Each structure stands twice: as structure tokens, then as C-alpha cells.
Amino acid sequence: MSLNFKPRTQSSDLDPALASFDVVVPAGSPWIHTLRKGQTFRITDLEGNQAVDTLFFNAADIKEHYSLTHTITAQGALYLGLDTTLLSSEGKAMLRIVADTCGRHDTLGGACSCESNTVRYALDKRSMHSCRDSFMQAIGNSDYGLHKRDIASNINFFMNVPVTPDGGLTFEDGISAPGKYVEMQAEMDVIVLISNCPQLNNPCNGYNPTPVRCTVWDAA
Amino acid sequence: MPQSSSKFSEDKLLWNEALPGGCHWSGVLRRGNTLRLTDLQGLANVSALFFNQEEKTERYNMPDTLKAQHTAFLTAGHACYSDMGRVLCSIPEDSCGWHDTFCGVLDSASMEKKYGLLNYQTARNNMHRSGQEGLLTELTKWGLSRRDMGPSVNFFSKVTSDVEGKINFDTSHRASGQYVDVRFEMNVLVLLSAAPHPLDPRPDYAPGAVRLSAWRSGTAGADDACRLSCAENERGFINSERWFL
Ligand SMILES: [Zn+2]
């Protein structure tokens, strides 16, 4: 793996023993949870090279969702990392990345789906697992009022999708490693919807989907 | 599948319409028709959203479009994918060479901050219009809402990235008379806004006008450059064709 950028990292001194919520999300599973304003949310890549496909919604108004275009244009850069403010489709701050031991996260690559698997790999790959099927399962089994139409742009924590100066785009090996984490503080009440990616056809997971840990701390 | 699709010529024209800078438009472009967008003054940005007209939960999906074709921008030979693995439309011809996919539309708050407030009461039809308001107005006409607003294609705008991911709006490719042909492979609800790009470096609100020209072109033929540009696109076109079986 070659890195053509210098990752900016910062660790956190929050203690998981003092967390108000702590759960392991198995490889290939969805997870949905509401974060309150001021809470801190950490995703830990337990075994390394995992892609964590994540969407955020304003808990008071689910029509407002995380927006990659607002986030990218506001910070003038494609990749997410320390100090990135995650903006909504209404231009409001949803969360801010306050600690990050990985250094960079993708927001262009979107979530895999069984339909896009037919395009990207082969027409008969439709029956495989996919992140968007996980999202459908999570919203179908919960009462948040979320609909397929709300599954817009997402973040892929720990994933590496470099764009070249001449506009090329590639999927590369993850830049994460066992135990790396990203931590963000909620600037509003938000619904977190995660698909812990089950993709087996490309290197975004190192071809080996693994569990992640989601930890939440109340405001100090 | 036809042998090939036909290129633009005046005698094939179905209709022609001017879209003034800053204004918005929506309509249905049916399978087998092509819409040519022409930048009349060399200042245009056209933000576009695409929906399957028969099942509007299916819509243009920017990440699937980029991933399938290993590109961060769109030009001739590319296709626009829906979230259901189908090609909604494709670009058989393009004299511009680069259309932005990841910056989205200018929102009203940013517009006011950048250009000041100029409303209808003060300026009548010279008021400042944002891409967000324009697209939202059109979305609402078709029973959709702000929850349906995803990343748009920004035709005629070039935004590049360096290796660190820093993005830059490139004005050097602008020229009056440039055009891009968008050929519809499905029946598509098209929403357009000709408001300025959110990163347009000009200090004044100065959106450019575009001409919309549609003709009956047929769909991508067996020999089509978009179909053959990668194995992914061959499968994407098959998925669209199966929808119409
Ligand atoms: Zn996935």
C-alpha cells in the first residue's frame, strides 16, 4: 500500500469503561441508533481494513440528511478527517470529527448494492449481500419513518477511494489497521444508520469483512 | 437494440427552448430521445437530477456512476446510473470534456453570503436564484421533496482534485457554444437548474443561459461508445433494456 498523503491523526482520552453505550456490530450487519447533541460517538475498526458505510439524519426532521456535496464544498476537499464538520442537506452542522487515528475517510464511493454488484462484477452476482440491502433491512424493521428515498449520500469510514488530478477514481486497499478509530461529536440529535460492509468483490474490506465497535459517551 | 443512435441535426428537432441563467426547468425525456444542452455565453452551469419517471424512488446515483466507470467526472462515453443498476442516460457527444459530479448545488444561505440579497421585490426577474430553490421547486411539482435531493451532475463545470483531495474550480474550459448531448435510455424525469456552481469564483452573481434542444435519436446502438467503453456499461445497458422487456 502506498500513501501519497500525510495522514493527520489525533487520539482521544475517552475511556470505553465510562461509555454510556457500547456495542459490537458484526461484519455484514446493519445498526441504527439515535445520538443526542453533545454525545461523542466512536467507531473502532476492530480487525482493520473494514469499510463502515454510514448515514446520518436529523432526528427531529428525517428529511434532512448528511450531504457529501455540502461537506466537500464547505471544506474544499474530498476526503474526511480530523476537524471535518459533517454537514446536512440544509447546510447545518450534524457532527464534527474530534479524534481520528486512521487519517482519512471516503465519502464519494457510496454504498454497495446487489443491483450495482450486477454492473460492477457480473449480472448473476445479484444474490450476494450488500450494504443497501442492509440499509433496507434496518429501515424496514424500525420505526424511524425512513424510506428508500432517504438513502442518499453516505460516508465510508476507514475506506480509501483516491481521485487523481486528471479525474480518475480507484478503490484501494484500506488505510486502516486493527484498533484504529474515528470519533465525532454530535452537533444536533442525529439518527446513525450503519451498514458494516459485507462486500467480498473488491479490496475495500481487504476481502475479509470484520466487526466494528460503536461506543457512545454522554457530554461531560 | 438499434444499430446506432442518430446525431443531432436541425431536421430532427422535436423542440427547442432557452433556459435563462439562474432559472429552473423540469420535464420527461423518453427512452430514445436526446437532449442537447448548449452553453450560450460560456458562463453556464446546469445542475441536473434524474429520476425513473415510472418509479421515482429509482434515481441518479452519483457514487454508483463513478464507481462503475472509475471516474470522478463525466464526459462523452459515460453513462449515468440509477441506484438500481440501470443506465438512465448516457453521453454520446460532448464538446466540453468535463462535467462536475461531487459539488452539488448552490444553496440559498451560501448564495446570500456570497452575493448579497437580491430578491424579487427588489429586482423582479433579475433576482438571485439558488440551485437548491430551483431544484426544490421542480421536485415539488412531481410529488417529491427536499428529502429526494441528492448529488447533482453539474454540466459545464470543471472541478479537479489534487493528491491531498483539495478541490479547485477550473475556469479555463469555459467557452460559448459548447454542448453536451444527454441520451435517455429510460423514461426519465429531468430536473435542471441554471444557477451558478457553488464554487464559481466570479465575485458577482452572473449565471449563464443554456439552450435545450431535443430530438428523437434512438437508444445506444450495438456499436455505441458508451455501451462499449467498459464491461460495466455493457451490463448497465442490459439492465436498462430488461426494464423495457
Ligand atoms: Zn458495502
UniProtKB/TrEMBL annotation, chain A:
Q: Where is the DUF1989 domain?
A: 24-191
Tell me which InterPro entries the record gives. DUF1989, UAAP2
Q: Which PANTHER family match?
A: RE64534P (PTHR31527:SF0)
Q: What name does UniProt use for this protein? A: DUF1989 domain-containing protein
What's the source species for this entry? Polaromonas vacuolata
UniProt lineage:
Bacteria, Pseudomonadati, Pseudomonadota, Betaproteobacteria, Burkholderiales
